Amino acid sequence: AQKITQTQPGMFVQEKEAVTLDCTYDTSDPSYGLFWYKQPSSGEMIFLIYQGSYDQQNATEGRYSLNFQKARKSANLVISASQLGDSAMYFCAMRGNHAGNMLTFGGGTRLMVKP
Amino acid sequence: GAVVSQHPSWVICKSGTSVKIECRSLDFQATTMFWYRQFPKQSLMLMATSNEGSKATYEQGVEKDKFLINHASLTLSTLTVTSAHPEDSSFYICSARMGRGYNEQFFGPGTRLTVL
Fold first, then answer.
1. Peptide bond into A9 cis (omega under 30)
2. What DSSP line would sit under A52-104, residue for residue?
3. Burial A68-99 (b: 16+ CB within 10 A, else e)
């Protein structure tokens, strides 16, 4: 079974500062993928970044980077230079290579960017 | 990127009626589509996985006869909430994937269902 844990239900960050959203996971699959999604108040799920379990380097996409520590089973999202538009719910998700290949989501973190 | 649409974006219905929600992949063929349910301030919970041309696989605790899923083509999946009750009120989100070898799932904008 897969489990994703996001321990921060809500976070504040000052505009233009960096923020780290925590995500830990547990799985018995030797190969898996980790995702981060952003969900603004409109409800749509916006894909941000992906990290494969065998990727040697941490994934980066613009202002988003993923701090992947495989031994610690953590995949924290780092947002640099926060913007007001970054205020949203953020979900960490995992997909293993078991039957179905479905995504398992964490509980989410609500990020609020202060002007 | 690939686009997934959902229709309707919101619906209000009376208790006891059935509601159909459509999920379409607009610019790619989706071999697999997923249906999620999200209650306010909670995470997404997978309801079922559907592969084109075959029966959906439901997650434990999801009533198959209440939430009918049809994936008739590579671009369309439907979720029908039968005999809806107020407790079925929720945000329903579909997502689509091109195939098992693809990492990314593309999400629809969601459908907000309110049952009176």
1. no
2. ETT-SS--EETTEEEEEETTTTEEEEEE-S--GGG-EEEEEEEEESSTT--EE
3. beeeeebbbbbbeebeeebbbbbbbbbbbeee
Whether residue A52 and residue B1 make contact (CB cut-off 8 A), yes or no, is: no
Residues A108, B100: C-beta atoms closer than 8 Å: no
pLDDT at B100 over 70: no
DSSP string covering B28-47: S--SEEEEEEE-TTS-EEEE
Q: Which of B107, B111, B112, B114 to mutate to test the interface with A (most CBs of A within 10 A)?
A: B107
Q: What is the residue whose two structure tokens read 């997934």?
A: B4
B54, HSE (Cβ side, Cα atoms, 13 Å): 9
DSSP state of B9: S
Burial class, A109, CB count within 10 angstroms (exposed 0-12 / middle 13-18 / buried 19+): buried
Contact A63/A81 with Cβ under 8 angstroms? yes
Rounded to whole angstroms, how far apart are CA atoms B8 and B12?
A: 10
User: B63-81, pLDDT tens digit by residue?
Assistant: 999 999 998 888 999 999 9
DSSP B55: P
Spatial distance between the Cα atoms of A75 and B88, rounded to a whole number of angstroms: 33
